[in-house]
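Need a sequence for this fold. Nothing fancy.
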């Protein structure tokens, strides 16, 4: 569907948005054209929205945020909604993908699945360390099951440690290529994980079968219960990733602390995601939105958990949800009688 030309930096994005209702559905309009039906009801106005990256904000096989999603992100910020990026990626692997989107420098970014929160400009807000002794122990448990990489908290490269580059390329070739200048190979990897190292997280990656074996190893190891293991699965690519995080760390824990600092309650939060590492934040948020491209297992779980199942990432599902949240704000609702936001 054609929409108006994209506003330029400095323009009032919300002034070009029109809201309306058809039955119990909220619509957002640009000019005379409805962009999409959205959520039917928000019990509480949304003050903060947490948005996953891969499979959610980003379309399949692309690292470019769509035009409609860009417009919606900026309109949400203009409307007073705090936009938070919540991703399993680390900051250095996330921020470049958001260049040109128009996010404000102070936009919070929850990265490494909740271990680190910084602003888009890079200022640290929150941080949790992974114990180096624990990390060294996990290396022994996981050796031979896919690849293992550890992320360091340092401003200079290399900030990623792997034990075998050949194995890493065999499991995550595109990731290795994208991070080539940031990776250091150390054999054995434990030698790079001294007690004075600031570790953010570990990550194991491989086929779904390999990571099932890795999860089983971790569950019966002496380290079980001393860390968080968060799974992300991509069945279509036969790829699974296990993020190894400090105990108690998740996207939910980081968002809960961030919202608390801002005086925002859970019922005022909308969280949007598509994978298992989004599960805790979807449960915690007042409005949890599972993308329509999530696995069948997660879509089935949505009904039990009370999550809304939105459109897919290919259909700009993030924009659809943001448009609905903007339209449901008190100022937008009041404007329905006059027609203009």
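Here you go.
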């Amino acid at each position: 569907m054609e929409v108006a030309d994209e506003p330029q930096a400095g323009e009032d994005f919300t002034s070009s948005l029109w809201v309306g209702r058809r039955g119990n559905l909220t619509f957002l309009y640009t000019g005379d054209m409805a962009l999409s039906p959205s959520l039917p009801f928000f019990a509480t106005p949304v003050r903060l929205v947490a948005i996953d990256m891969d499979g959610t904000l980003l379309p399949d096989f692309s690292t470019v945020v769509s035009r409609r999603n860009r417009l919606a992100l900026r309109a949400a910020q203009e409307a007073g909604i705090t936009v938070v990026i919540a991703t399993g990626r680390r900051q250095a692997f996330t921020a470049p993908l958001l260049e040109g989107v128009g996010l404000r420098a102070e936009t919070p970014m929850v990265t490494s699945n909740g271990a680190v929160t910084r602003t888009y400009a890079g200022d640290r807000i929150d941080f949790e360390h992974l114990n180096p002794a624990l990390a060294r122990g996990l290396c022994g448990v996981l050796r031979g099951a896919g690849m293992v990489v550890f992320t360091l908290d340092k401003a200079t490269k290399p900030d990623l440690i792997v034990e075998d580059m050949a194995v890493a390329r065999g499991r995550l070739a595109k990731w290795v290529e994208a991070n080539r200048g940031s990776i250091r190979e150390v054999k054995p990897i434990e030698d790079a994980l001294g007690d004075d190292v600031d570790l953010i997280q570990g990550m194991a990656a491989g086929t779904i079968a390999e990571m099932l074996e890795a999860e089983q190893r971790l569950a019966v190891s002496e380290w079980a219960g001393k860390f968080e293991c968060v799974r992300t699965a991509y069945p279509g690519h036969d790829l699974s990733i296990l993020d190894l995080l400090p105990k108690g760390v998740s996207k939910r824990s980081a968002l809960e602390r961030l919202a608390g600092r801002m005086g925002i309650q859970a019922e005022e939060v909308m969280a949007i995601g598509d994978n298992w590492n989004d599960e805790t934040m979807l449960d915690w948020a007042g409005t949890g939105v599972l993308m329509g491209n999530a696995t069948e297992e997660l879509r089935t779980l949505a009904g039990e958990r009370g999550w809304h199942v939105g459109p897919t990432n290919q259909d700009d599902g993030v924009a659809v949800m943001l448009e609905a949240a903007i339209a449901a704000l008190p100022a937008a609702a009041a404007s329905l009688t006059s027609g203009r936001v």
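For context: The chain is about 25% helix and 25% strand.
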